[in-house]
Protein: Thioredoxin
Organism: Henriciella pelagia
Amino acid sequence: MPRTLKFAILAMIIGLVVVVSFALLSATSKGGSSDPIEKLATGSLAKLDTSRKGAVISQAKFEGPDGREASLSDFRGKTTLVNFWATWCGPCEREMPSLAALETQKGGDNFQVIAISVDATEDKDYAIQRLEELTGGVLDFYFAPPEKWEVVYDSSARGFPTTVIYDEEGVEIARLAGEADWNSYEAAALVDAITN
């Protein structure tokens, strides 16, 4: 085989390896995204979704910790992480301690975690007790029983747990369907990025 043909074949193989490697890296990396929030969708937050970015916060009413009516728009002025959960949902209960840890670490004037129970009315007392047990009292109890699920529908929560993050103006930044570790480096970095 002529020497030039050997070099040509070798060059083609090297070129093919480079192209395949680049394609695989692009497919598995968030690095190509221009959205800074999408770039943070790694590790425990790999399922972070920004497809509804810009959606406006629901005005629907639900029950606040004091038993009075509340709405998500009451929290305008601070970035809010809204978690829809239920006691009958194993993944919801598993992630609740990490949500409490995030509130302890990052909560304050600029950021708050809001956990809204979607349990049935007759299970309200049990849900209050479980939230206390799971979070050590760090998170306040908000309640949207099935007859007040308008906030759930307005927020496009398709299952539980669903977490939706809104900016201080009440506009959606991102969401995550399913369980996540909110007591993670990725979650802390996300909160820092959206509150600074």
